[in-house]
Amino acid sequence: MNSSPITCKGHPMKKMLALATSVTLAGMFAAANPASAAVFVVAHPDDDILMMGANLLTDIKGNYKTVIIVVTAGDAANGAAPMAPGYTADIATSFNTGTTPYYRARLNARLNALATWIPASYPRPWQITTEAFGPYFGGVPTYVEKATLGNVIEYHINLPDQFEGNQYTTIENLNNTSGATGDYYAYDVTGKNVYNIHSLREIVRQIIKRNFPSEPNLVINYQEPAWRNASYQPVPRMDPSATDHIDHTAVGKMVKDAIAGVPAYYCMTEAIYYGYVQAANLPSPNFPNAINDQRLGYEALHQTLSTQGNIIPFHPGDAVSGGTWGTTQVYSPTITGQQRQRGAMDAFHTSFYGKQIWYGIPSTGPCNLGVNG
């Protein structure tokens, strides 16, 4: 592979390693040279930990300021209820078998996972607050949950993770809003905040502006939106038949549109993740040094889920369902006696350890967001 640095006003960014594919500007950001600051925008509470792990690990462990925006609650259509309506605890599709809502268990679990990567010099625990944006609707501010620990700041938008009556997901419906059909509105799973696509994009921009008002070396990490359908202007693919998770690409489109809406934001280098289809098909880990830490973080995530009483526990030797992926296998944890979440930590998911594939758009412009950026 040939390598060349991406620069912003002369500052070297993460190296771009050229891939032997037909994809223009294809590559992976080298974990050895992290950004001085980074933003990650993901659809679900474990997307970045599992599938953007090398970039995220390097930025956090390198003690660089890292801001993460988790767009959906990851509630799997269960909302904020302790148990999914119509299900009992012995039904495989009922995640909320305890008193803690599934989405809250997932958010707690990801914070536990990230804490394993945050330098130990920072005092624990996470500080949970809210941050006001707007007001956008009826003079009422939008209060976004915010978690802070050391060099990491995380925002939880908590939009529903579900298909709706028209068979589009909430994020897709927001993206599909047009002037001809009027705005589509969506409440978060708690019912406290309401969003349309305009307020969602603006909150993403405001989070960036408030946390990085004059950062000359900022990388924003998100998913390539082209992998859902042709209307998202697809780039050439390694596998022409591959498609990716709907909400991953829908969030990627939202972020790309948010950036395009403010020219000053071109000061950010865009690190665009190709998606789990491509990463899963990579022949071997391309970030071998990240495998152990990524595994420990993901196991810390699932250990938290198992202790909160809202998943059906599995033990070594049990035959377990792969859930969404339709597979059955024997559960064999790395940590002796550890329980697991149904449909995760299987061979498909753990195949992502150390595998990331990206392409990048170098930054241009003033590299200073300023108060009106």
UniProtKB/TrEMBL annotation:
Instruction: Spell out the InterPro entries in the cross-references.
Output: GlcNAc_PI_deacetylase-related, LmbE-like_dom_sf
What SUPFAM superfamilies does this protein map onto? Answer: LmbE-like (SSF102588)
Presence of keyword Signal: yes
So which residues are the signal peptide here? Answer: 1-37
Q: Which UniProt keywords apply?
A: Signal
What superkingdom heads the lineage?
Bacteria
Mind telling me what this protein is named? PIG-L family deacetylase
Organism per entry: Pseudoduganella flava
